[in-house]
Amino acid sequence: MLNKNIETFLGFDADYKDSSFVIFGAPFDSTTSFRPGTRFASKVMRSESFGLETYSPYQEADLTDYALFDGGDLELSFGNTERALEQIEEFTSLVLKDEKIPCMIGGEHLVTLGAVRAAAEKYPDLHVIQFDAHTDLREDYLDQRLSHATVIRRIWDLLGDKKIFQYGIRSGDRPEFEWAAQQHVFMNKFNFDGLENTVEKLQGKPVYLTIDLDVLDPSVFPGTGTPEAGGVSFVELLNAILTVSDLNIVACDINELSPVYDQSGVSTAVACKVLRELTIAINKNNEMGGVFNG
Amino acid sequence: MLNKNIETFLGFDADYKDSSFVIFGAPFDSTTSFRPGTRFASKVMRSESFGLETYSPYQEADLTDYALFDGGDLELSFGNTERALEQIEEFTSLVLKDEKIPCMIGGEHLVTLGAVRAAAEKYPDLHVIQFDAHTDLREDYLDQRLSHATVIRRIWDLLGDKKIFQYGIRSGDRPEFEWAAQQHVFMNKFNFDGLENTVEKLQGKPVYLTIDLDVLDPSVFPGTGTPEAGGVSFVELLNAILTVSDLNIVACDINELSPVYDQSGVSTAVACKVLRELTIAINKNNEMGGVFNG
Amino acid sequence: MLNKNIETFLGFDADYKDSSFVIFGAPFDSTTSFRPGTRFASKVMRSESFGLETYSPYQEADLTDYALFDGGDLELSFGNTERALEQIEEFTSLVLKDEKIPCMIGGEHLVTLGAVRAAAEKYPDLHVIQFDAHTDLREDYLDQRLSHATVIRRIWDLLGDKKIFQYGIRSGDRPEFEWAAQQHVFMNKFNFDGLENTVEKLQGKPVYLTIDLDVLDPSVFPGTGTPEAGGVSFVELLNAILTVSDLNIVACDINELSPVYDQSGVSTAVACKVLRELTIAINKNNEMGGVFNG
Amino acid sequence: MLNKNIETFLGFDADYKDSSFVIFGAPFDSTTSFRPGTRFASKVMRSESFGLETYSPYQEADLTDYALFDGGDLELSFGNTERALEQIEEFTSLVLKDEKIPCMIGGEHLVTLGAVRAAAEKYPDLHVIQFDAHTDLREDYLDQRLSHATVIRRIWDLLGDKKIFQYGIRSGDRPEFEWAAQQHVFMNKFNFDGLENTVEKLQGKPVYLTIDLDVLDPSVFPGTGTPEAGGVSFVELLNAILTVSDLNIVACDINELSPVYDQSGVSTAVACKVLRELTIAINKNNEMGGVFNG
Amino acid sequence: MLNKNIETFLGFDADYKDSSFVIFGAPFDSTTSFRPGTRFASKVMRSESFGLETYSPYQEADLTDYALFDGGDLELSFGNTERALEQIEEFTSLVLKDEKIPCMIGGEHLVTLGAVRAAAEKYPDLHVIQFDAHTDLREDYLDQRLSHATVIRRIWDLLGDKKIFQYGIRSGDRPEFEWAAQQHVFMNKFNFDGLENTVEKLQGKPVYLTIDLDVLDPSVFPGTGTPEAGGVSFVELLNAILTVSDLNIVACDINELSPVYDQSGVSTAVACKVLRELTIAINKNNEMGGVFNG
Amino acid sequence: MLNKNIETFLGFDADYKDSSFVIFGAPFDSTTSFRPGTRFASKVMRSESFGLETYSPYQEADLTDYALFDGGDLELSFGNTERALEQIEEFTSLVLKDEKIPCMIGGEHLVTLGAVRAAAEKYPDLHVIQFDAHTDLREDYLDQRLSHATVIRRIWDLLGDKKIFQYGIRSGDRPEFEWAAQQHVFMNKFNFDGLENTVEKLQGKPVYLTIDLDVLDPSVFPGTGTPEAGGVSFVELLNAILTVSDLNIVACDINELSPVYDQSGVSTAVACKVLRELTIAINKNNEMGGVFNG
């Protein structure tokens, strides 16, 4: 009590040097065109996580079984998108250099670009698995090339064809769907059908997993800027996470929680539970095989 | 920019004369006995529609493929129910006379009576398909014969036996269910089972489609005056719309969105998406066969 | 109109002496560790019940078919947990002595302990069926032995091994799950699988049914203190209630509605509907066989 | 506890026959053109009144000093304005015939017309004091003669020139202000300046007091359909009530609370306190002089 | 009805060419560091303005007395601050070139910089009067020179010493207050004391008036990103506007309404009323003297 | 960044040993009879304080001028009131023993009893100044002697007659006001009139200052469990704090913020500002005279 007040996500109690898994917040939403607010996600998740148990009855494992570190939130420049992405890239690179797995909490989806840049530098053969309602494949959006609506297209600029695997997609403009259909990225609409095939194909590859929580149905997760009806259930997302956790996930993120739009707190509780399950799934796997190191 | 500010539902950009499909708002909720607020639906849907894409990945078609007109909101007399219904009937008749399909955005469900009166005048053999949680079959309600709870009974007064097909019903009083069981209307409780049979039976008939959005489960669509647990999912509703869109739909409406009861905005987003899919489904069909003209 | 204003749950219009089924509120939430508010549940349910129909299209029966009494809310001591439990026990005993079935509306789940104490005194062979997201099996919680998180453990102190049957459980700490696995209680995780087996096993036994409404998925029921993703649907809960209503239910409760966390009112509407269906299910069964009387 | 649950406004515990002051709700808002919701006011005020003390430190008197009766809510026809006004008139007449003072809780301001009709029949020389932000003097509104925006004009139709005294007015259209300036009614804009003069002038006259709570500044009372900045404070309204309570108030009402627009509950708490102070002020005065009886 | 739906702020019905006063929205909030949402202000104000009267009982004048044009909202680049400011500058210049008075609805306060650049180009001797809770005088903020917290400092870069007059200031960091005290700008803390002196001093000068609505007390105006207790009342702000309207106001703005933070709608209603009074005050003055044309 | 995430109230950055002023949270609301939620106050205040400046333009001083320590929140037993008070007393005693000034953030007002017990042990001549809407002088409440409604009476048990000075009181039951009038405590109703006299009288005495934030008008501070119209303004409270800060304040608290009831965040912002001003006022004074040490 007589030390300064420490606030970390529930169960993330280890010191940095002892941890192999590091979460941090990237509170940025300046390019959000419709309803901003994801900047509050990481802060609110930390605060509300004390309503969560550390134990997963799904995986029969506990956050306390692992050494987990919470680095707090990056201080990002609002209104200067490129600089914010650099700050994210720098921090992610630092974590990766120390042979730990970074797990970023957005923020709008654009923050993924900063983390992927860092991961791609360390792992040139990086693949990306994306769970999302939206394609995010626009070439530009409202005259901008750096936007939540273009983020996966910018990642494709970096990684090239056939490195990106999208699941759950149910919104975008027609050119995005047509571009995807030209084999630039793999896209599975509406759900996780065929995810096992992707997992099989990516065995042994370094994988970045990005989870836009709006892949969930808005009934499950109303607290997001652009809710899209027709999404997956929590159990479907959980199973998808367990499925891909067999892969060598070298970095990951969850994003697009916007707590202000769900005053029941349910969306935040769901996000916390997704983070718990994701953390356990990746760390369980690592126990058995270690961090992928290219 | 130097013209007056125009606000239409996303993608409804055509002029009246060029359009074959016309939406308009009927912001009326004076007989709502429990929780009013549907009067704001059309206004809020227009305003929020810019968070929606014009493209449907479900139907692989785009609102921009069609000439669509948004006539704005009718100015209706609050507190004078009969006069408001006349105003709705007049406007609907005008649109029908010009050989366009009217699509009304309620308002409480009673507004449907005004539009059906207009449609029944032009199409004496009119049939009605109703997606709804509630029977709306009372003879009167709180001493009134014109009420959101009696609207389908009033339509039966007009059309007679075996012209009305109800799906998704899960609320009403016992006499309503008993009356329906006397073959006055066809009622399928809880879901859309057997909708194909109705579609088969109504081939070649003029059909009015009325969608009370509370047919959706309240988890999907909380923003309504009388939420009824145990409803259908968005995908089930979407499929039902696609199923009936093969018919000759001469007029339609969606109603009972009450935005104030869902501050997440999810209900409005769902309503916008239903309108997009309904619009595309009807216009796709018309491309192939033209407006039904008796 | 010129009598004092009476406010009862919809359809609970009978006098006490004529009724065989008695609801009452237990507005207590003092041990709630995360988000309080269940104290308002019974009051809000009464007030909002007039948005509900008395007729169940699921069971084709009506609340008005039975003589039902609403005893209002107990006045409980906030901040004195043991005293509040005594008050609940006293009232429940009174109702049981008069050969009526008490149905308590919580409050936090701890209130169940008071009612079970009364029921166990009358029915020494009492069994408990619990629908819940949480195990509630802790030995103590935040230094307290009387808590919403320990309530079922305290009931086990009273009833002993193999008398408690838990369904829908998806949250707790590891020791709780391990303790349950030692055959102290029967626990079925996540859903109602195998409920028929429990019903078969408990034929002829006096049963207390406790429904923590957070067994429902938060999409269906966000208005609760500790929402847990991955729950059951309304229809699944309804079917589970119908399944166990064949048993001799001597007392029951529904708890953990916290209206303030769901401003759409949907959670309250769901709770009202659960109460309607539960009431009809139990009273239908009693019509056929009478109240269990040991 | 074993009687049916009674719910009255705090401190209104007497039987009808013993009371000289009778409150009742008129939950009607069908003509509300902007944001409906006042229909919930009386119900919510009853429910929330238990957060209030019965004692007034302002008047050093207590609700429990008087015999006060709460008649509950009238069941009014939604969507049939004229019928609803008749129902209000009938009930008010009944209370007046029994030599009691009726105090109506609206509803939209139009409900005042029903009560004034009853009062004017018993007291042909009736005068009206109105505390309000709005003139409500339109000849008609949205084609209707019966509307919340025309209610005082309709009362003028009944009572004639120089019988109506308006205070706090700060909104209306220009013709209303011009019409008032022609000496049809007395209007004091913005505040209660000069209220003592009106009180002096109306000594010995039967007075109907109608308080549209939107006379309060929206900072104090946000929960109303048409909030108008620049209103009076709670203490100013309290003093105005105390000032006019010296008159022979034969009937009164408070109206236009719309609880749904103020989720903090502050507006409801203010309305409850205004009702407490108004009740005590009128009953204190009556103790000294008895009900005015023409 | 059969024209496209036009939505303008209440009473702004004239065509561009006929108007001498032009409002437009600048929906930008990308640099907002705390709570974003001002991007919705202009849209919501238009939508809610129909709850307002066009007539001002304060000024005894009506919006309909003037030819007023609403240019709708600019489409601004989110996340590219410099580009957004250019877009604002271009539009403002166009309006100024046509000898009309532009009145911008923000948006965060940074948008003022774009409009002031345009005004300062046309009127080299431009002075700025600022009503605001915050100094906005930082040299940079979170590493950025273009920010809502630096906007007035950037305007000082443009205009130089003794051209800026701040009223109502009650928040900032110490260096800002110290810098202001060095006579770079005139600052009056907390209220409008001495505003008459400023008006006297600026007779005959071209003045840009910028109203950050958070100058109002948060009780009056809670719907803003950074509420600061201790502000002015609506009537005080109204009087301040009337006081400065004697000056030659060549352009103006109101900003920092963030509707999502005030679900009662009161803040939006206040902003609409401020815009009505500001519009009438400036146009009344112009009737007497014409637009200042340097 | 690579240390654990620390979250303290803005500007409370010092280590414990270096500080003379220590804030800590007492998140307890188990006896709250009406609307709970104050348990979240300290957590939310910390989180939201980053929207505040550290500089006070009122006192022309800065939080950063002092060494201030934030001890985080106590972990209190919910549902065991006496144990919670002991925990508060222990911590407060520890801080007092180290010659620092404790400043507790409630929680419901009952928490004050724990802190006063500690202060009265160290300072036998302790006096209490209370700013509050409520008397809190009941002998017992709902059968309990330890309650938010009895807290000042319990403190009187401890300190005896003429040690307690109440300001701003406007709610209680009649016996409380009568008991106070018997000279047990000094009570000033409604406002701070005469506070200078109290300050003069208490020169040189050890003083505990307890601020129930509901002394503020609900328009300024809606986020509290029992809002009472007719309260003081922020500036009035600020001046009262400045007035009493001349005294030897040996401990203090602010309590009864309930953030969930004010979704605008304004109440939390006000509470943060009160804490800033209170902290600066006490520390400024101590600079000149040192901590009172009996």
From TrEMBL, chains A, B, C, D, E, F:
CDD domains: Agmatinase-like_2
TM region(s), chain numbering: none
Keyword terms: Hydrolase, Metal-binding
Annotated Pfam families: Arginase
Stored InterPro entries: Agmatinase-rel (IPR005925), Ureohydrolase (IPR006035), Ureohydrolase_dom_sf (IPR023696), Ureohydrolase_Mn_BS (IPR020855)
NCBIfam families recorded: agmatinase
Homology family: Belongs to the arginase family. Agmatinase subfamily.
UniProt name for this protein: Agmatinase
